[in-house]
Write a structure and sequence with these properties.
A hairpin with a 2-residue loop joins strand 3 and strand 4. Helices cover 34% and strands 28% of the residues. The protein has 155 residues and is of the alpha+beta class. The chain has one domain: Roll (Pnp Oxidase, Chain A). A seven-stranded antiparallel beta sheet has the order 2-1-5-6-7-4-3, sandwiched between helices. The protein is globular. It has five helices and seven strands.
Amino acid sequence: MDQRSLLRAVFRIVNRFIVVPGFKMGLGRFISNPLTGNIMVLGIRGKKTGKIRYAPVSFARRDDKVYCYQGKETRGQWYLNILAHPDVEVLLPQGRFSGRAEELLDGPERLKALRMLLQGSGLSQSMYGFNPAEAPDEELEEKTKGIPVISIALN
């Protein structure tokens, strides 16, 4: 098993046995912090099974919207499921909400959301090779091209 596969396996175990149960118990404020980054858990209906699945993701909040993004290299099941079933449960450090998700395509809202997401992603904020707080919009857009951003309007 290569290092990347091992790291993914560790994240799956931590998410399944620590992050998701912690958020369900209302302990999200202890899990989401400056070191780990802004983390929330999404409850999303599976496109094949119809069962609710829970996925921890990075988030940014602005007014009555929450934003999250899918990484550059893979298309996770949570992302594919949210496209099929946009009504979601949102477990934030501040509590549970319901919402409706939509993918943001190009535009200023996507760029603002991505900048907030990357700035709030803890130790991994530099993984794209630039400082998200200082990068001009053109650089941000170029370096994050193809990264899906999801907007969730909270009810």
